[in-house]
Structure formats: C-alpha cells, structure tokens
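Exercise 7b. Backbone tokens:
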C-alpha cells in the first residue's frame, strides 16, 4: 500500500516527503501523540518542497494566497468538507461538520438570517448589555484591587452573547462573581479541545459517546462530565426555548425547529449538534481574539493611548456607548482588530474538497475529490505580505491604506466561500464594541502574564500555548469617569 501511495497514487507527482505520502502515522504522531504539532511539520515541508506539498497520503496543502479563492470557492462552485477532518468537531449533524455541499446549504439556511450585518446591528443592545456587565466586573476588581483573569471574562462575555442568540436568554456567566464557576463552555474549551485530533483519527469515539445514554456515559467516562453537563443543559434550554411562547425575539433554536425545516432535519441530534457548535464556535475564537488584542495593547502603551484618543471621536465621554456601525469607521481600532485577527485567529486546517472539479496549481493537477487546505496562519505570517510578521503592528494596516494597498484581501481568519464562518459579523460587533468600551474607560496593567502564556505552540483547532489556554491577567489601575 505504501508503494502504491508513493509511486502510483494520483497525488504521487505532488512534492512532499515520502513518509507523509506513505502513511498517516506521521501526522498521527505529531498531532495526537505530541499534541497539535503537525502544523509545524507542514511548515517545515513547505520550506523544503515549496508552496504545494502532499502532507499525508490523501491531502494537499498549498501555502500560496493566490490559490485561496480557488480552494475556498463560493458562487455556486461545489465545495465539500473532508469526511476525515470533520470528525474532529464531534458534531456530525452541525453545518460545520456537514460533508455534502447541498446538505450544508440546507442546514446553514435557517441560521443565515441571524448573522447578516443588519441582524447583528439590530441586536447591538444584546452585545452592549454584556459589555456593560464586563465593565461592572472591571469596576469591581478595581475597588477590590484584585488580579482579574480578563481572558476568562471574555469567554463569559462571548458565551453569554451567543446563548442569548440561541435561546433568547443568556447563561448568566457574567452575572457570577466567580467567572469560571458555572461556565461549562469555558471548561470544555480549556480542557476538552485537546481531544480534537484523537476524534479525527478515531471518529468512532465521539459517535459511540453520543449514541449511549448520558447516564451510562457518566459511569464509563467520568472525566468527560463537563461535556455531558453541557449536553444536558443544551437539551434543557432547547425545550425551554420552544416553550417560550410569544418570545420578543425569534431565537436560533426556534428557527432550527420551525415546521418549514424538513422533518428529517428536525431531529434532536441535529438540534443538539448545531447548538453545541454555535455555542463553542461563538465563544472561543472571539474571546481569544479579544485576549490577544488586549495583551498587545497593554504591552505597548502607545497603542493603547493612540486608540483611546481615536475613540473620543465617537465616545465623547468614557461611559459613552457606540455600536459597531459607528466604531468600524475608526481606522486605528480597525487596524488593531485586523492585527489581532491576523495573529490570533483559529489555526485549524480547514480542508475543502472540490467533488467534480480538477484544480490546477503551477502545473500540478489536483484530481476531484482531493482534500486541499491552506492554513490561514501561513498566509498571515507570510513576510512578503506582512513584513516582520510576528510583530503586532496596527500601523501596517494604516500605511497600506495610505499606499492604496488592499491588505485585507490577505486577511482570512474566517476562511472564504460557501463555508465561511457564519458568525463573522457577530464576531466583529463583539470585537469592536468590547475593545472600545475597555480602552476608552479603563486603565489596565498586565500582571502575572508571561509571553509564553500567550504563545502559539499547539494547534487544537484554535491556537494553544504549550500548557493550558491563553491566559491574560490584568489589574485595573484607573477608571475614567468624567
Ligand atoms: C474571531 C472570531 C471567529 C473566528 C476567527 C472564526 C473562524 C471560523 C472558521 C475558520 C470557520 C471555518 C471552519 C472550517 O472550515 O472548518 C468557522 C466556521 C463557523 N463559525 Fe466561526 N469564527 C469566529 C467567530 C464565530 C462566532 C461569533 C460564531 C457564532 C455563531 C461562529 C460560528 C461558526 C459556525 C457555526 C461555523 C460553521 C459555518 C458553516 O460551516 O457553514 N464563529 N469559523
């Protein structure tokens, strides 16, 4: 089999190491055994073999932005997911994990209306309410002179916003004094995402786990109790949401269980998986981006004061409120957010499959049905596009705009095409409104946060440091009220 894969397989002409072409064990070792390290092997392969590499027996990785819109195509061109890749999400009925192009479109359709720019702007008050609660915590820890885990607070903020979208009622994470106490989502993200690579290689594990009753699973694998808690919570909240007759706002859950959705798509499994992914997807990445942005703003106080000065244009008083539509016109805030998305976005390998098209790249032919990927990390760290790529430099976006360069075409944290992140507009609203509210009013200082706590060394769908999750702690040293 290895001989066939290396010499006779349709991908045998694609450059790459023979070991990677012969066996999946190479990837298994680096991602499962070493824990999310295969991304660095891919980086080495590109250094040795150029922009197109066969990274395993069946997948091609291309680190060239000019191919991005071919791989992540939209406009009616069919793009499917790789069945082997989607099992890492352990939620096979969610749109995110749906392989087939047409079924994905059908599953995404009821969700779309909630995430258009107009819909997100109309729900600005939901975001604003949670941002105000975060401000309440900042005032509280200022009075107590306490160290504050801001990264955890961001997870509570985004978790509360997305549960409000899902069920019309938030989970109350921000209402707790101890922000971790009831936040199961935070716990799953902090401890559970390391299983993503194992699930990819052994999809039977999540499938079995879901097929068995939760009560039995609690006995078989007690270590996953937080996942079961969340599953039970989702079922409970789903029931409540349906019972919420005459709710002021239509929720995502109502839309998924609407009679206009085909009966086969209204199963408990479908609703549970979609809610689970929207909840996790809507919590982690935005909170991580807020964490990274704040970390860099605090490491360089010039960035912080420059941003505060700019914010005064739309927030004359420190307590003024501004929505995303007002804030997105501010070039420096936009540059800070772009830079945080460039450096901090999810590091997953979002493979796409063109089921009926042959793709061509520099004389190489990629047959239909081949998983092809580009990890955004490689585009975002390309020094020809972003000189000194590791440095957090908001000014690069301002200078590019002055030169008339459209640098944003290389910013792909949400991917593109038919499978682009559905929550992109909500993420932007959260990023703009939260950063603005913090920077305009609060003076913060970094504390108990080492550079290695914020370093990306492991890919677990999202970026992870060597140990645990990105952790940003601060002290509130001043509050501007006048
Ligand atoms: C900075 C914040 C965010 C980033 C960087 C991000 C990134 C991504 C990426 C890269 C994908 C594609 C994954 C793949 O191809 O396998 C994706 C999909 C998705 N994201 Fe996000 N995301 C963010 C925020 C959100 C938010 C706030 C939500 C809330 C609803 C969300 C929900 C989803 C869902 C449901 C999908 C699947 C879409 C589909 O397959 O049609 N994300 N996201």
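Sequence design result:
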């Amino acid at each position: 089999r290895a001989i066939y894969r290396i010499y006779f397989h349709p991908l045998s002409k694609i450059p790459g190491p023979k070991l990677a072409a012969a066996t999946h064990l190479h990837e298994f070792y680096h991602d499962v055994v070493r824990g999310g390290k295969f991304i660095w092997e891919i980086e080495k392969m590109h250094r040795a073999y150029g922009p197109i590499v066969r990274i395993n027996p069946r997948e091609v990785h291309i680190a060239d932005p000019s191919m991005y819109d071919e791989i992540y195509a939209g406009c009616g061109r069919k793009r499917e997911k790789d069945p082997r890749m989607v099992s890492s999400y352990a939620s096979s009925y969610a749109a995110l994990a749906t392989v087939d192009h047409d079924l994905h479109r059908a599953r995404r359709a009821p969700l779309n209306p909630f995430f258009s720019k107009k819909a997100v702007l109309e729900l600005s008050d939901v975001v604003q309410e949670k941002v105000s609660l975060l401000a309440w915590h900042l005032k509280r820890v200022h009075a107590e002179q306490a160290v504050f885990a801001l990264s955890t607070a961001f997870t509570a903020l985004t978790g509360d916003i997305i549960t409000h979208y899902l069920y019309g009622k938030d989970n109350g994470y921000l209402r707790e004094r101890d922000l971790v106490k009831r936040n199961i989502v935070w716990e799953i993200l902090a401890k559970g995402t390391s299983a993503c690579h194992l699930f990819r290689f052994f999809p039977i594990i999540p499938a079995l786990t879901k097929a068995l009753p939760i009560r039995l699973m609690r006995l078989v694998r007690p270590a996953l109790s937080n996942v079961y808690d969340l599953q039970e919570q989702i079922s409970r909240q789903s029931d409540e949401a349906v019972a919420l007759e005459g709710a002021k706002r239509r929720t995502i859950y109502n839309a998924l269980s609407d009679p206009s959705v085909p009966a086969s798509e209204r199963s408990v499994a479908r609703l549970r998986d979609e809610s689970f992914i929207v909840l996790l997807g809507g919590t982690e990445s935005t909170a991580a981006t807020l964490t990274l942005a704040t970390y860099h703003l605090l490491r360089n106080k010039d960035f912080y004061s420059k941003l505060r000065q700019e914010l005064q244009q739309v927030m004359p008083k420190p307590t003024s409120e501004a929505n995303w539509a007002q804030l997105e016109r501010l070039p420096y805030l936009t540059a800070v957010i772009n830079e945080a998305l460039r450096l901090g976005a999810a590091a997953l390998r979002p493979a796409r499959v063109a089921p009926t098209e042959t793709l061509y790249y520099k004389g190489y032919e990629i047959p239909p049905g081949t998983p092809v990927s580009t990890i955004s990390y490689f585009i975002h760290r390309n020094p020809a596009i972003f000189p000194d790529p590791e440095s957090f430099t908001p000014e690069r976006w301002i200078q590019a705009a002055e030169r008339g360069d459209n640098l944003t075409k290389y910013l792909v944290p949400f991917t593109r095409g038919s499978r682009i992140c559905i929550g992109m507009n909500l993420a932007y609203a959260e990023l703009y409104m939260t950063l603005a509210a913090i920077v305009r009013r609060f003076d913060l200082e970094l504390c108990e946060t080492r550079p290695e706590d914020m370093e990306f060394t492991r890919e677990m769908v999202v970026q992870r440091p060597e140990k645990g999750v990105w952790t940003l702690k601060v002290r509130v040293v001043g509050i501007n009220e006048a």
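Instructor comment: The two ends are 72 Å apart (CA to CA). The longest helix spans residues 268-299.
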